[in-house]
Design brief:
Layout (H helix, E strand, L loop, with lengths): L8 H12 L20 E5 L6 H8 L9 H25 L5 E3 L15 H10 L4 E10 L4 H24 L4 H30 L2 E8 L5 E9 L13 H26 L1
Parallel strand pairs: 1-2, 1-3
Antiparallel strand pairs: 3-4, 4-5
Helix pairs in contact: 3-7, 5-6
Length: 266
């Protein structure tokens, strides 16, 4: 990517993100197994939370013709179907026998939120288990928002520190404003163009996840991100078939990361 950008800052940052993508902050706390191992864990597939803006950029026909609500519903259902197939294949490849459930009524089960008692009682009655790992496709074909936020935070912090250093030294004080203006323009251009390149080359897919334990409490949160193999030809040639193949590859890799994390936790 050095041929694309004027300096290697974004390359180093994106490489670090690629290496760290999907890393959980802590392993899944599943060491305490009940008497019946079959009821230890249930995987809950919740509906995708992919923003409408992302789906419009992938499948829409421009800003003047946004997708209507029925089309968005169909696309999210298709993502759910593809995720289900990828997850089940990944679990089978790891030799894991874990129950996978798509709740008929996902209300009250949103990721990151504790499960209220009525919803928890209904869930335990239908699918009894000690733990529930909730999964949902949160980013599909575009760089996760947290990556962009991290890049902005990194660049703003480094630029601010250098600007302050220049300003604190009288001989270079006049350069501080010039440096700040120049770097702001460069970093904005590099950031947006750089993430566009990552999206185009690898179509990132992220699966958000959390673990619910007794009394509906959230015990752990994390995410797994899949990136398809980079091919420079995708920068100047991208048809529907190639885009969908990249999305499937990224989704399968994210699902494999989920399965591998589960194997390590058992």
């Amino acid at each position: 990517m050095s041929c694309v950008f004027s300096r290697p800052g974004f390359l180093l940052w994106s490489c670090a993100l690629a290496l760290l993508s999907g890393c959980a902050s802590a392993p899944l706390p599943l060491s305490a197994a009940p008497a019946d191992p079959a009821t230890k864990l249930v995987l809950l597939e919740l509906p995708p939370t992919v923003p409408a803006l992302t789906l419009n950029r992938l499948y829409g026909q421009g800003d003047d013709h946004p997708l209507d609500d029925p089309a968005l519903v169909r696309l999210r259902q298709d993502i759910q179907r593809r995720f289900d197939a990828a997850l089940r294949a990944a679990l089978a490849a790891e030799g894991l026998q874990v129950r996978v459930v798509a709740p008929a009524d996902p209300r009250g089960l949103a990721l990151g939120e504790a499960v209220a008692k009525p919803a928890l009682q209904s869930l335990e009655a239908a699918h009894p288990a000690r733990y529930y790992l909730r999964l949902s496709v949160s980013d599909f074909g575009e760089t996760p928002r947290s990556w962009m936020d991290g890049y902005v935070l990194f660049e703003v912090g480094s630029t601010g520190a250098i600007t302050a250093l220049l300003y604190s030294n009288p001989p270079t004080r006049a350069l501080a404003g010039v440096y700040l203006a120049e770097e702001s323009v460069e970093e904005l251009a590099e950031g947006y163009s750089g993430f566009w390149v990552v999206n185009r080359l690898s179509r990132p897919v992220r699966i958000a996840e959390d673990l619910v334990g007794g009394e509906g409490r959230v015990l752990w949160q994390g995410s797994e991100t899949g990136l398809a193999d980079w091919r420079w030809a995708n920068l100047w040639h991208m048809d529907k078939g190639r885009r969908e193949a990249l999305l499937d590859a990224s989704l399968q890799r994210a699902a494999r990361k989920v399965a591998q994390a589960l194997r390590q936790a058992r």
